[in-house]
Description:
Layout: H1 2-10, H2 13-38, H3 45-78, H4 84-108, H5 113-147, H6 158-173, H7 175-215
Amino acid sequence: MEDASLLSTIFSFVSVFYGLLVPLLVLQAVALLFIPSLMKPGAQPSGVGAAIFSYLMESVGILLMTVGALPTVISVLAGVELSGTTYFTLLVLFAAGGLLFLWHDNRVREIEDASRAVPATIFMYMFKIMGFLIVFLWVLSLFTTLMQGIPTEQGWWILPLVMIVYGTLLTWCTHAETRSGTQSVFRSITTSSSSARKTKKAPLRKRASSSKGRKR
């Protein structure tokens, strides 16, 4: 009976539905990233795939570092003492995220610029938007809380302050990268399109001049 219940749980409608839906959504997202990336002149499909994979792993690393760092900082500021096992688990998560991020950051720098230009721009702007939204929403939440009066609860300011600093850090870290990355991508696309137009117009001019010579 236990084996039958296990098989029925694994092959239930919900499990099969999400087991098929999640890979299809991931495949669709990766395919949508491939389309603009391959529009970059000189981009190679293998390099684009490696860049997308590396930036996704960097995102996982940032997520692990966030999960390991934020609870530790909040507990220290709030004066809440966690158990040694909890601190060790958070430290392992932070270290694993840092190693994963640094490893794939080193790998993505070995990929040619044309292949990683678009994935890098999407990666940087994604975290820039996340940081801006975190700062904006927590500042708005803090403002509405203060409009109702200063809370009497001790340490009420710790979580908003930590989240605002975290969002500011995300926005600041992506500020310099997004400026250079977007310009290189869009300049290359516009220059390639303009050069293509010039090459198309050149034969037309030759044909027009040859037709004029024949008329004469």
